[in-house]
Amino acid sequence: MLEVRDLHVYYGKIHALKGVTFHVGAGEIVTLLGPNGAGKTTTLKTISGLLPPRSGVCSLEGKTVIGAPAHEIVKRGIAHVPEGRKIFNRLTVIENLRMGAYTAPDDGMRQDLETVFNLFPRLKERREQVAGTLSGGEQQMLAIARALMTRPRLLLLDEPSMGLAPVLVEQIFDAIQKINREGTTLLLVEQNAAMALSIAHRGYVLETGTIALHGSAAELQENPEVRRAYLGE
């Protein structure tokens, strides 16, 4: 579904991604692991059109997304839930969700709202509440729900558990699995490697802008380097 090949991205003179290559198959959950500064967020931003690569291939279902503006990439089926959520704090929950649906046909918005409210009932309870007054967990739910309003085929998730209590982390990851079961492919960046590998099909480890390891989630869970560096063992 998604192919990334030999991707090179720079911040000025800093070479952030150095030939990154990986793929995500339709229906998979694939996780990108790695330390801070490894290039995980840069990878997602490049896929979603927020950063231009110096060179390389990035294609969705065989069609390149390199050079396309971010809003066009959304229309093609890629939605990005950024690190830090980036919701519209001064808008209500329902207004945030309607903003997410700007690329979708108007006649389907009601059904899409019901879908995300079924996934996150707390958002339905707070639909008229100003988003900036929600708890951290509720804001993360809203960020994911807003992305789902675009009807993505591929959902990019950047650090969905950041700053959340363990019980909320479990709720968010349960929702991620349900989203996947209902047909959406996911590329997940997550510092909580144990949680990420518990739901992912496959994973890649990024280190200083390059892919250092890759394999099935089970293989990575058993890899001594991964266990020592990311699983606290």
How many discrete domains? 2
Order of helices and strands: EEEHEEHEHHHHEHEHEEHH
Strand order of the largest sheet: 6-7-8-3-9-10
What is the H level of CATH, i.e. the homologous superfamily of the largest domain?
P-loop containing nucleotide triphosphate hydrolases
Q: Topology, pairings included?
A:
Layout lengths: L1 E10 L2 E11 L4 E5 L6 H8 L7 E6 L2 E2 L5 H7 L1 E4 L11 H8 L8 H11 L1 H5 L10 H13 L5 E5 L7 H16 L3 E5 L3 H7 L2 E6 L2 E7 H6 L1 H6 L4
Helix pairs in contact: 3-6
Describe this structure in words.
The chain contains ten helices and ten strands. A hairpin with a 2-residue loop joins strand 1 and strand 2 (14-24). It has helices at residues 40-47, 70-76, 93-100, 109-119, 121-125, 136-148, 166-181, 193-199, 217-222, 224-229, and strands at residues 2-11, 14-24, 29-33, 55-60, 63-64, 78-81, 154-158, 185-189, 202-207, 210-216. By secondary structure, the chain is an alpha/beta fold. It starts with a strand and ends with a helix. The mean pLDDT is 93. 37% of the residues lie in helices and 26% in strands.
